[in-house]
Amino acid sequence: MLARRFRLERTIGVGSMGVVHLAHDLRRGQAVALKQVAPEHAADPDARHRFAREAAALAAVRHENVVRVVGVGEDESGASFVAMHYVAGPSLEDVIVTSANRGEWIAVPRALTIVRAIAAGLTAVHAAGFVHRDVKPSNVLIEQGTGRPVLLDFGLARTPARASAKSLGAGTPWYMAPEQLDDEDSNDLEISTRTDVYALGCTAYEALTASPPFTSIDLEELKDQHLRRAPPLPSSVRPELRRLDEPLCRALAKAPGDRFSTPLALAEALDRAWAC
């Protein structure tokens, strides 16, 4: 039991910094996903600060496409936890892999519907004053039964003014915008809401082609690709996507100012291009 309210049932996820449990909220009578700092990091002030920042970012957002916080507190040892509405269903990454394993693509209308929902959730995140900084298929759940996409994992969320740290550790390399990378070519690029537009572009690209735009497993090569190389046209992987080449490549522009101004602008451009 935590805070005399949450009864832990089983562990459902383990990350580098946190552990997520399926729990029962006795007050609300419903299942929740309860996240705690991993035991090995519980005494680390930086880990605790990041955790508190994630809780603050999540609690500030109310949107159907963003996971909802139902409680924040500390356990008996003083370790912080955040309880979120439990979303049952696969991640977008799972959906992509399952389709690929069957030799199939995700249907374009379905992929664009998912991208539009993520964009709407990101718009709420940005309106609350945060940049997510880690948008990727594994951070999007597709709710079982409804198909509702839900954005989660705000461990890297920051306000734009504080989101200046640049390193390959501050994000997931396959989805990181050039301005997130520590390189002389990125020193003049500021992290902003357009950083999330880039990551959403990478996520959309993968939902449509079953692969992120850059796939190297060598971190230095991957960094060079994000900073200096044009991504392969989506239609070179899946010819029917020719109409989406331009908006997806614009979303992946190296300079933030050359990208779409908002996630919704990207989603709307993709919808228009596909409808033509």
Short description:
This protein has 8 helices and 7 strands; from the N terminus they run βββαββααββααααα.
Descriptors for this entry?
Phosphorylase Kinase, domain 1, Transferase(Phosphotransferase), domain 1, 2 domains, 5-stranded antiparallel β-sheet, single chain, 276 residues, alpha+beta
Distance between the termini: 55 Å
Give me the CATH fold name of the largest domain: Transferase(Phosphotransferase), domain 1
Mean pLDDT metric: 88
What is the count of β-strands?
A: 7
| Helix count from the secondary structure assignment | 8
Which stretches of 5+ consecutive residues score pLDDT under 50? 165-169
What coarse outline follows from CA principal-axis ratios?
A: globular
Strands of the biggest beta sheet: in what spatial order?
Answer: 1-2-3-5-4
CATH homology-level superfamily of the largest domain: Transferase(Phosphotransferase) domain 1
- Let me know the largest β-sheet: 5 strands, antiparallel
CATH class of the largest domain: Mainly Alpha
Secondary-structure map with pairings?
Elements: E1 6-14, E2 18-25, E3 30-37, H1 45-59, E4 69-74, E5 80-85, H2 92-101, H3 108-127, E6 140-142, E7 149-151, H4 193-209, H5 219-228, H6 234-237, H7 245-251, H8 263-275
Antiparallel strand pairs: 1-2, 2-3, 3-5, 4-5, 6-7
Can you put this structure into words, describing what you see?
The radius of gyration is 19 Å and the shape is globular. It starts with 5 loop residues before the first strand and ends with a helix. The chain is an alpha+beta fold. It has eight helices and seven strands, in the order βββαββααββααααα. Strand 6 and strand 7 (149-151) form a beta hairpin.
